[in-house]
Amino acid sequence: MSPAEEQALRASARNGWLLSLPALVVLALAASGPLLIVVYYSFLTANDTGGVIRQFSIEGWRSIFLSYDIFEDRYTLADAHLKIFWRSVWLSLTTTALTFVIGFPTAWFIATRPPSQRALWLFLITIPFWTNLLIRTFAINEVIRNEGILNTTLLWLGVISEPLRIVYTETAVLIGMTYVYLPLMVLPLYATIERFDMRLLEAAYDLYASRWTTLRRVILPIVKPGIIAGSILVFVPSLGAYVTPRILGGGKKMMIGNFIELQFLQGRNWPLGAALSVLLLIIVMAALLVYVRVANRDRSAGHG
Amino acid sequence: MGVSLADAVTISARNVVKAFGQGSGVVRALDDVSVDIRQGEFFTLLGPSGCGKTTLLRLIAGFEMPTEGTILLDGTDITTLPPNRRPVNTVFQSYALFPHLTVAQNISFGLEMLGKPASEVKARTAAMLALVKLEAMAGRKTSQLSGGQQQRVALARALAPQPKVLLLDEPLSALDLKLRKEMQIELKRLQLETGITFIFVTHDQEEALTMSDRIAVMSAGKIQQVGSAKDIYIHPKNRFVASFIGETNFLHGTAEAGAIRLATGERIDVPGLPAGGEATVSVRPEQVRLGLPSDGLKATVRTLVYFGTDTHCHLALADGTEVVARLQSPASGEAGLVEGQAVGIRFADGAVQRVED
């Protein structure tokens, strides 16, 4: 390489950094900055009147897993906290599964409409986004509560003799989250199904595959990128969900999001809240790593 | 192939009608088509786009159900059998290879679906890879292959389950000319080696003539003529077949016993033609012979077009009817004719064929 070429290369590298500077600044201020503050707060001492005392402590992190028993003067495993974590993960996984089960046929339906109709169907899918989440959640509550539309209808039809107790249960939270996050599953699925070559169905069918086998061996492996994208888009916000479990779970079926809020407001324990926030982040990252790893292993293993 | 099997019918379409659309917009893609395709033959459905050839293929594959009529496979009615239960495989125009599977996995797909034991799947897949000379590509993804290689994978995939009939839907149309010629030879070899009945759809008459045992020429949802390449070329049944397969001259006139009288008053011998009414005959350009003006039909040379191996001489009869003669180019390249020259036209023995309109 000639010196002139080297110089040109260096100049273009320098320009590249300069051009990406705005993005780097935004990332530093908006992403890393607040995150670092949260990590910093999680290692400070709680102030009983709110806020923190600037003094190093690991109490915030310890109290996630262990609670101090004043009578026996020792730490015991914080069952209540672990239960909240478990519930959060479980509800988020179930929500992801439910949105897939409902979202896949929906996305398939839209993608197989004539191109002129697809925009309309997608538009209908996005309509719920126009209204505030809080209002939509109260609307769900109106449907499923004891004297709500669902129970009144079922009672009137004689299907049930007394109202179903759905509201303030995990089922209510699941219904709410599935409803709220469904579009996030449908849209990426639609994007991959729309690109799916429908002639492959005829090829599979021609090669003696049944409809079910075609779904399992041809359609699902090919639209997997959409499934992964949709699952991540649903799972991540589900794990940190706050409004839905608060309203439909009635404060009894708490998820991590509600638990964090509790620490910052009534609990007056900011370090614990901050530690919980960081932990939530770690859980999400771990889940994503596992998910991507499993997805890639499936791909390379194939069907041989 | 045993000689005794040569005439056994594998696929039989009986009075098949396929209509698309509803009410007044109904289009009959196939209009009362009946055809018998024999065991082990290379049968070609030839016609222009929209003639119904692909529809007939899709009915045999089971992707569509006929509106009327039946389709038999080895004498059994398969009209309503779904594609995954017919021992018939297809090579698609777009190949439709599974992008998430390797070459070997694509080929073994059908065998696995049939529930063949793993050892057999492996052996058949290896045999198929060898048959299409793709052993070295077994582990590749199909997207990493060239068009010709993808074509071979599609063939191997469809042949692997040893179907009774292989359907090929314009499989060579995406390839360039040189590759297409190679694949034509390859296809013919595969058909002879496997002994499987091939039903080949194409709009390319040359492809049809060079590869097929028999050809069905289709137009407007109907089969116009079925026969060997020679049959169809030498004895075209009607104007459509005569003009679709190769080039031809049509001469129109009044039928007299054993001859046709043109508008110019001249007579051409057509052995066996009954007298009465109008008639049209077809003469291939290479069967037109030129001589002295006193010899045969009087004509004038209009234009000469040099094609290398031969020269096309466009002539006009006394009433202006155009006749094209294909003359072998002499070594000098000069046909020894000039525009405006008066010549006489004769036709080779047996070259004049009566055709229906």
TrEMBL record, chain A:
UniProt entry tagged with the keyword Transmembrane: yes
Please report the organism this UniProt entry assigns to the protein.
Answer: Rhodobacter calidifons
Predominant location category: membrane
Q: Which Gene3D superfamilies match?
A: MetI-like (1.10.3720.10)
Output the superkingdom of the source species: Bacteria
Q: Which keywords does this chain's UniProt record carry?
A: Cell membrane, Membrane, Transmembrane, Transmembrane helix, Transport
Checking InterPro entries in the record gives: MetI-like, MetI-like_sf
The membrane topology noted for this protein in its Swiss-Prot or TrEMBL record is:
Multi-pass membrane protein
The record's subcellular location field reads: Cell membrane
Name of the protein described by the UniProt record: ABC transporter permease
Residue ranges of the TM segments: 21-43, 89-111, 120-140, 171-191, 218-243, 272-292
The family classification in the record reads: Belongs to the binding-protein-dependent transport system permease family. CysTW subfamily.
One Pfam family from the UniProt entry? Answer: BPD_transp_1
- Ranges of residues in domain ABC transmembrane type-1: 85-291
From TrEMBL, chain B:
**Which ranges carry the ABC transporter domain?**
11-245
- Gene Ontology molecular function: any one: ATP binding
Q: Which UniProt keywords apply?
A: ATP-binding, Cell membrane, Membrane, Nucleotide-binding, Translocase, Transport
Q: What is its EC number?
A: 7.6.2.11
Catalytic reaction list: ATP + H2O + polyamine-[polyamine-binding protein]Side 1 = ADP + phosphate + polyamineSide 2 + [polyamine-binding protein]Side 1
InterPro entries listed in its UniProt record: AAA+_ATPase, ABC_SmlMolc_Importer, ABC_transporter-like_ATP-bd, ABC_transporter-like_CS, Mo/tungstate-bd_C_term_dom, P-loop_NTPase, PotA-like, PotA_ATP-bd
Say which domain of life the source belongs to: Bacteria
Pfam families this protein is in? Answer: ABC_tran (PF00005), TOBE_2 (PF08402)
Q: Which family does it belong to?
A: Belongs to the ABC transporter superfamily. Spermidine/putrescine importer (TC 3.A.1.11.1) family.
Assembly and interactions? The complex is composed of two ATP-binding proteins (PotA), two transmembrane proteins (PotB and PotC) and a solute-binding protein (PotD).
Write out the function statement from the record: Part of the ABC transporter complex PotABCD involved in spermidine/putrescine import. Responsible for energy coupling to the transport system.
Q: What is this protein called?
A: Spermidine/putrescine import ATP-binding protein PotA
